[in-house]
Amino acid sequence: MKKLLVLLLISFVTFGAFANGQGETGTIKIGVAGAHSGDLASYGLPSVKAAELVVEMYNANGGVLGRQIELVIEDDVCKPEVATNTAAKLIGENVVAVIGHICSGATKSALGIYKDENIITVSPSATNPPLTKSGDYPNFFRTIAPDDAQADVEVDFAVNTLGLKKIAVLHDKGDYGKGFAEFCNALLENESGVEVVMFEGIQVGAVDYSAIINKVANSGAEALIFGGYHPEASKLISQMKKKNLDIPFLSDDGVKDDTFIKVAGEYSEGAYATGPVDTTSNPLAIKATEDHIAKYGEEPGAFFLNAYAATLAVINAIEKAGSTDYAAIDAALKSEYVDTPLGKISFDQNGDAIGVGFAIYQVQNGSYVELK
Amino acid sequence: MNLEYFFSLLLGGLTRGSIYALIALGYTMVYGIIKLINFAHGEIYMIGAFTALIIGGALALTGLNPVLIFVIASLAAIIYSAAYGITIEKIAYRPLRNAPRLSALISAIGVSIFLQNYVLLAQTSDFLPFPNLLPSLKFLAPVEHLISTSQFLILVSTTVVMVLLTILIKFTKMGKAMRATSQDKDMAQLVGINVDKVIMVTFLIGSATAALGGVLISSHTGQINFYIGFIAGIKAFVAAVLGGIGSIPGAVLGSFVLGLTESFGTGYISSDYEDAFAFIILVLILIFKPSGLLGRKENEKV
C-alpha cells in the first residue's frame, strides 16, 4: 500500500514536471502588471482592459501558435516594494511576457527580477529615460516615448531643420519643464557649432518678464527654447513679440495646448511645440476605442492605446518567432514591424518603440499643425 | 558695458516698480491709518483686471474705438474695485476695529481666499487673454527698442497717480484729515474729524490705484487669471515694508527699489534667483533700518 502511494506520488510529480517542462499543450500565459487599485488605478486599469480586448480577439481566431492565450493579472499599486512581489508571482505562474508595469519606479524594481528569469517586459507608460538608455535591462521594451525623446526631436529640429547656431534655453524650474530644458541643453552641447547662450529658470507668476526678455535679446540668441507650461509660455512669447524680438520660439507638449493659442492670440503665430504624434485618425485606434466602448460602456482611459499596442506587439512577436523562447521573442520584437493603434511600430536595440514619439507642431493661422 | 541693455533693464525695472507702487500705495495707506495689513488688497488688483476684461469684452461688441474702450474699461475697473474695497472694509474690518489686531489680520486673509475662490468659480481657473486695445506707438530712434506702448502707459499713469495723490494729501481738507487720523485716531475724532469717512476714503483710493495697476499690467502681459493678485500682492507688500510701511513716498521708493533690483538682478546675474533678490534686500533693510527706508520710528506708548 505504502509503495503504491509512493509510486502514485512519483508519477504525479513527474507528470507535473512533464506538463510544465514541455508546456506546448497548455495556454500561453501573459502577465499584466500595474496599478489596479489605489490612487493610481486609473493609469493601470485601462491596460488590463486593452490586454483583454486584444487577447479576446486573438483567442476568437484560434489563439497564437495554435494555443489559447491566458492573461495573468497582478496588481502592484504602483509601489516599487509591491512590484517585486508582483513580479515573483507572475514568474511563479510561468508567464512568457509581461505587459507592464505602469509607473517608472515600480517598473524599475520589478525589471531586475524579470531579467534574471529572461522574461520580456513591455510597459505602456513608464517614460523614465534610463530604463532603456542605461542598457541595464535588455528584456525591457516600451510603447511610449521616453521623457527625453521630446528634447531629441526639438533639438534635431532646431539645429538641423531651422539651422540655428545660438540658442537660449529657459525653463519654469518645475520637474517637467526643467527636465526637458536640461535634456535639450545636454543635447545642444553635443552638437558641434551650436552654442547655448543662456540657460535659466524664470519666476512662475512674476508680474512681467521684460527683464528676462531683454536678457535673451542681449544674449544674441537666434531662438528661444522653453521648458514648461502654457501660461508662462504665452506671457513670454507675447512680451517677446511686443519688444520686437522676433526669433523662433520652441517649446514642449506642455505648451502644445489650444489654451496657449487662445491666450497668446496673434503673438502665438509661428511658435513651435513638440507633441505626441497624432494617431486619432489611425483606423486601429478608432477600432480599439470602439471595441472598448462596446465592451465596457465607457471611453478608454490613460495609456489604453499604448497598452493595446504593447499587447499586440508581444503576441505578434510570439507568432513571428514561432516559439515562446526569450531570445526568439526578443529578436522578433526588434526586427518585425506590427500594425498598432499607434501606427506601424518596432523596437530599437534599447527597447524604445520606433515610430512612436513626438512630432513638431507649429501654430499656423490660429491652430497647431503637425510638421511632417 | 552695453548701454542699451542697461537702459532696457532700467525701464523694465521702473515698469515693474510702477505696478508694485500702484498696489503698495493701498497697503501703506491702510496701514498708516488703521494699522492693518490688508491682505485682500492683491485680490482687489485682480478684480480690477477682471472687471476691465469683462467690460472691455462687452464694449468690443459695440465696435467702439479701442482706445476709448480701454479708457471706459479702466474707469469701470477703478469704480467697481473701489466699491469692493469699501465693502470689504465695512463687512470685514469695521466690526473688528477695536478687536485685537490679529483678528483683523485673519479676517483679511479670509477675505483674500474668499475673493480668489469667488472669482475662480464665477469665471474660470484658466488663463484668459486680455485684449490688446492700445495702438502701437512709434517711439523715436534712441528708445524705440527700449520701451513698448504698454510700458510707456504704465510709467505715465503711475506718475500722474503719484502727483494727484500728493496734491490730495498735502493740499486738501480730506488729505489733512487723513494725516491727522494716521497720527492719532482718537484725537482726530475728538477734534471733529469723521474717522469712518476718512478710513472709507483711504480704502477707496487704495483700491482704485490697485485696480488701475491690474488693468495696466494685464494689458501689458496680455493675460489674466484668478491667481495673479497673490504674487503681485506679496511683492507690493514687501515693497511697502521696504520703504517703511505707513509712508506713501516710502511705498513708492520701496517699489522702485524692488522693481529695479529684480530687473538688474535678472539681467546681470540670473533669473533663477529673482524672488530671492527681493527678499535678500528686505532682510538687509530690516536688519539695518527696521522701520524701512522712509519709515518713522514709532514710540511705543506705555
Structural class of the helices, strands and pairings of chain B? Answer: mainly alpha
Overall geometry of chain B? globular
- Mean residue pLDDT of chain A: 89
Low-confidence stretches of chain A: 16-23
Within the largest sheet of chain A, what's the order of strands? Answer: 7-6-8-9-10-14-15
Overall geometry of chain A: elongated
The helix content of chain B is over 70%
Judged by helices, strands and strand pairing, the structural class of chain A is alpha/beta
- Which H/E pattern describes the elements of chain A? HEHEHEHEHEHEHEHEHEHEHHHEEEEE
Largest interface: A-B, 32 and 42 residues
Number of helices of chain A: 13
The tally of structural domains of chain A comes to: 2
> How many angstroms does the end-to-end distance of chain B come to?
55 Å
Question: Average pLDDT value of chain B?
Answer: 90
How does this structure look, described?
Chain A is an alpha/beta fold. Chain A has 2 domains: 220 residues, Response regulator (Rossmann fold); 105 residues, 3-Layer(aba) Sandwich (Rossmann fold), CATH 3.40.50. Chain A has 13 helices and 15 strands. In chain A, the strands form 3 sheets. Chain A has a 7-stranded mixed β-sheet, with helices on one face. In chain A, strands 2-1-3-4-5 form a 5-stranded parallel β-sheet, sandwiched between helices. The longest helix of chain A is centred in the N-terminal third of the chain and has 21 residues. Chain B has one domain. Chain B contains 11 helices and 2 strands. By secondary structure, chain B is mainly α. Classes of the chains: A alpha/beta (372), B mainly alpha (302). Chains A and B meet through helix 8, helix 9 and helix 10 of A and helix 1, strand 1, helix 8, helix 9 and helix 10 of B. Chain B: It is found in: Cell membrane.
Descriptive terms for the model:
heterodimer, A: 372 residues, alpha/beta, Rossmann fold, 2 domains, 7-stranded mixed sheet, 5-stranded parallel sheet, 13 helices, elongated, B: 302 residues, signal (chain A)
